[in-house]
């Protein structure tokens, strides 16, 4: 590590003093036109995009601790291993005769040999282990029946750490020859990030087991099928305007048979049919063959989550296209026969189309969308509204937005989008539709899609950009020259993907000043991806990282938080020195009025290694206070990052400053994002 020079140390010290510091550099004078407010800022301007990538759902936000609890994932014993000492294990096999449920036909038969007196049973590894907390309680439940003539009296359940340590133990007795559900509570005596669940037969004979669940009692809002509280709290602390779900590429699936089907994710949790996750090895080279979707976190739970964190729900639905980077299958636009479908040109263009047993036409996908709107908003007297009520939510979810397709491109998308959108609008004219402009923010396909979607009067066009940090700084003016009429922009996925976390975050902040400045064009925006498990990720960077017990927000998380908590209600024009372009000399700025609070909010990014004095003229402002409040996110090290052990290394620091009339003098720290709030009205 290099040692700072005395002059560098002095400069850094002066920067921390903010407006009190006297530095040689002449202040940059910016004019904030408080008296000339511009466009309104959308209440849902900054939101969240949840995709089941990086073990974000199973093993993450959804806290079920047992992997492959119903033995439905291929291979059927994924996550499980046999326990035996000596030659005591007679049977260890997945079977399908007379299952608990036709929707979950597989179960496990375990049998111990008589007369050995040795341990026989099974063990589950969890999702990179099981996070167990001292003093916490966990509900173990499962379906079980004794085999014919079995002498097995019951089971002993244990949570273990290492080879010898037992964290909790309980016995389950009273097994019969008929399927019954059993439950017992395990209370942990210690904390362990990578515990395992062990089930051992009490006595010789065969026992059939299914739907083996270990679920923490401590969930957000204490729901029986609730979510991991620390992760939900991190989302809520962002005060998001919307929650887009259940993902991007997983909505499409590698094939249409593997697409996300929302109707299979509601109802009884034990009966939800799991599906291999597209991210297990379908796109990126970091293979995770054990990555699947249990759908314990399904559409009902997503709607509940949006409600819990105060966000508008924004579900994304398949438009009759599988992932174009995989099989590129297409649902036929008319008719129901797969013979009229043809795969798009892609990496598997020569492969025959395959849609599963139902061979869906586009009509099936459209009906799914209409049924979802009824599920979310329909009365109890409607078929799908009744399903919502039966799940415990009598009131409608008041769904206002849906996404039609994710990152699809080309004419094949447009010719499916048009009848899809037409059918939705015919029945639900008030629903705003988010359409796709493809995976890239430029090029011929992007231009053609944007033009056609404008002609179709789309409400929102979804633009995505993953690029190096310098791209974000260089394109902070991206929307300055967009047409002020036509579709709004939904910046649905973006992240700087450089090597240095603080560099990424600061560059994103610079870009976001352009989103805010053009709030009449940009209606919604979301960073992506949202979550990542430190031991099971496919994509980086990400907004929030976690292991089985802890979690932290990255510097990008705090950039998003500062924009969201300070989004204001109306844009205020900002003029840089000499009418310079935003970003000139690595200085970026935007401003808004927070009308309910009676405050002016100014956001300033100093992307330079030196402190930068600025002078702000709040033109047209009245009733100014004598002091203001500042929040500064800064690090002189562009490689700075937060971690599980140092979760608050780069976080906002609060301070106050003085005003002189309508002038604000402030010194921006090196490599910093600063938010200033001043009492004042136009």
From TrEMBL:
Top-level EC class: hydrolase
SUPFAM superfamilies, alphabetized: (Trans)glycosidases, Galactose-binding domain-like, Glycosyl hydrolase domain
Catalytic activity: Hydrolysis of terminal non-reducing alpha-L-arabinofuranoside residues in alpha-L-arabinosides
Signal peptide: 1-24
Alpha-L-arabinofuranosidase C-terminal domain segment(s): 492-672
InterPro entries with a match to the protein in the record: Alpha-L-AF_C, ASD1_cat, CenC_carb-bd, Galactose-bd-like_sf, GH, Glyco_hydro_b, Glycosyl_Hydrolase_51
Region (Disordered): 334-357
Keywords, comma-separated and alphabetical: Glycoprotein, Hydrolase, Plasmid, Signal
Domain of life per record: Bacteria
EC number: 3.2.1.55
Family: Belongs to the glycosyl hydrolase 51 family.
PANTHER family in the cross-refs: ALPHA-L-ARABINOFURANOSIDASE 1
UniProt protein name: non-reducing end alpha-L-arabinofuranosidase
